[in-house]
Design a protein that fits this description.
Length: 95
């Protein structure tokens, strides 16, 4: 499937891009190169490949939930942009 100059110009118009004549020619060539590559990928036989094959044999590492005492509150609050007493002050997100 190839893209024509008119189609590139229309896509640019829909995207509200102002392309000169040279840009339209260059984009036509580049888009056709990308589409040509995608057509090559369509020829690859992926019938026996699971859609989630990249996850096979992998597991999510789990860490046990443990309660730990935190005794250096001043150090934690020192890195905060705003703090008041023992609390972090954050911008209001709900009016």
């Amino acid at each position: 499937m190839a893209v024509s100059r008119d189609e590139v110009a229309r896509i640019a118009s829909l995207a509200r891009l102002e392309l000169g004549e040279a840009d339209v020619d260059r984009m036509t060539e580049e888009m056709n190169a990308v589409l040509s590559y995608v057509e090559q990928l369509n020829e690859v036989d992926t019938g026996g490949v699971s859609p989630h094959s990249f996850l096979e044999g992998k597991s999510t590492p789990l860490q046990p939930d443990t309660v730990k005492d935190f005794d250096n509150l001043d150090e934690a609050l020192a890195g905060a942009p705003k703090a008041e007493g023992t609390f972090f002050i954050v911008p209001r997100v709900i009016e």
